[in-house]
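Hello K.,

You asked for the raw outputs rather than the summary table, so here they are, unedited. I folded two proteins back to back in the same session to keep the settings identical. This is the first:
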Amino acid sequence: MTVIHSARLITSGTVTENAWVRFDGDRVAEIGSGTGWPADADVVDAAGGVLTPGFVDIHVHGGGTASYDGDAAQIAHAMATHHEHGTTRTALSLVTATQADLRSQLALIADLASDNPLILGSHLEGPYLDHAHKGAHAPELLADPQAEDIDALLAAARGTLVQITLAPEKPGAMAAIPRLVEAGVAVAVGHTAAGYEQALAAFDAGASLLTHAFNAMDGIYHRAPGPIGAALARDHVTLELINDGVHVHPAVAKMLWDAAPGRVALITDAMAAAGAADGDYVLGSLAVRVERGTARLVEGGAIAGSTLTLDAALRQSVDVCGVSLVDAVDALTRVPADAIGRRDIGRLEAGAAADAVLLTEQLEVTRVWGAGNALFTRAA
């Protein structure tokens, strides 16, 4: 057992002062406040620090120089990098590749997820994307969704495909949405030329996410609200946000929070350079150069993911955008967890997963637990 006490606990939109949490194995056994926690445990004094559920990243491609389209060792290394920044559960995102390569990687991730509960499964960001809004995806590998290909991807993932991004205007996309939803996949509208009505039709067909709002899609115009306007019009839709100050201006990010309370999910969309140095990298099959922490394609200069970590997204949201700490924590935890149907994570309550992050008042990560195990402790 582990007991964390004397914490300012923030979870599911509530704040409890002088709180304590007891883990028993990989689950939260009980929560209280004041004194009276069990003494026969590994006791951690939070000393008034901020305790939150473990951060949940449902859109991330890698970190620490490694990518999630790599082998098992690369995947483990990238996850360890993000553990140091508070991320405890991860959907491993894959960029556009050949059908054969995607099936192979989905199968590998399914194997790893069967042994590692911190891997939520896979997220396919492509290949069913619009050419004009492709971002950092190889144009020659973009495709229209075919029923046989969708079935083959689902078979390879063996129930571990948790999210897929597609452009609903692609031939076959609208037919694919209910098939994917039936299989338990959260469908996201993104990298799209769809207008308001087409995006709205996708959400009404079962799509429930908007991939990195404002990026790789048309923005909101007063006579053409576009996919962002459609997402705001449907209460079941969660809007991803890369809040690094580069992808979306802080004022616009705050507008999104205000327009969709409780529906913004902070993501990193991080590539291999997250937690690593500037330099030359590869995203999928495309050459990327990172300068001053911003990743761009060598050819064309499009933004190529980010170097963001979720603790930095938390500080950006609170310190720069003016979002309340309670709302920002929710966007790192409960909201993304619920977006993929995982109501056992993203909150600290009895019976939930024993995932937690301890932060200083300045929101710097000091300790991280995942499935009841210590994942990171900052050196004194």
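The second followed immediately with the same parameters:
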Amino acid sequence: MEVLATGVQRDERPLLERAFAPRHDVRCLETVLTADTLPLAAGYEAVSTSVNAVLDAPVLEALVRGGTRLITQRSTGYNNIDLAHAERLGLTVARVARYSPYAVAEFAWALAMALNRRVVRAASRTRDFDFRLDGLLGRDFHGRTAGVIGTGRIGSAFAAIARGFGMRLLGWDISVSPRCQEMGMEYVELDRLLRESDLISLHVPLMPSTHHLLGARRLGELKDDAIVVNTGRGALIDADALVDTLRAGRLGGVGLDVYEEEAGVFFYDKSLEVMTDDTLARLLTFTNVLVTSHQAYFTVDAVEEIVTATVRNVDDYLAGRITECTLIPKSP
């Protein structure tokens, strides 16, 4: 079978091609699949998409008209896919159920450490031969409190690192992680976690119940010098409310690897264009905000797991198998 893979990063391409080579042909495109790029998918029974693909009802209908029967997304998240409509159309949809949790957890800590110790500002200064320490005062994480919102595989990995720093652990989730409990984590109500934590990291999926989980009211609960890191989904935080919080001179730092309106922006070179997203533009003006372009997952280890699962999803589709990666099974 020939598979079309869209939204493929340059470093991802050789890994993807090597994984598919023994059994299937794959055509890799950097272009993200949207309504504007749909003609590229015509004639492909199987299409592999990135998390930034826009797979709403009109796009799904056009894919079916073009002959697509399988969508296998190279991510764990799938809130960009209209699953109900895909099922009505008879599409098979799969995702990557899991990959290295350490990739994301370690990157969340990279953001936290860079913010706390003002690493980006310090590096920028020394490039200009300015070796002053003014404005670079950080804090020990040891002895302070880490609030982990979502204690699944990634959240648990983040908590383990926090424990290594000697931090007190608070957790919030719909279910308790035995691993986190063994590390001494105390599960508390979300508002208490926000009030008491010096470092907060978000690791919950995006659902109606978690949309804008940190809105104006809850952002107001945070300590004035708290550091917030989001490597989960952009819409877990109300970005406009976050801007207002920062403008009020609150928060020690904010690390965002995801952003609510990142589609069409992240993964692209926008350096020669006018930034039309006022909220993102304002966030980037704050010296205590660090924004990266959805790269937390981007390690060789994680990407190899992702592409291996993607190839397996194609094999499972052809064999009619249902696995933990299956979102909508193949029609009989």
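The mean pLDDT is 96.

Happy to rerun anything if the numbers look odd on your end.

Regards,
P.
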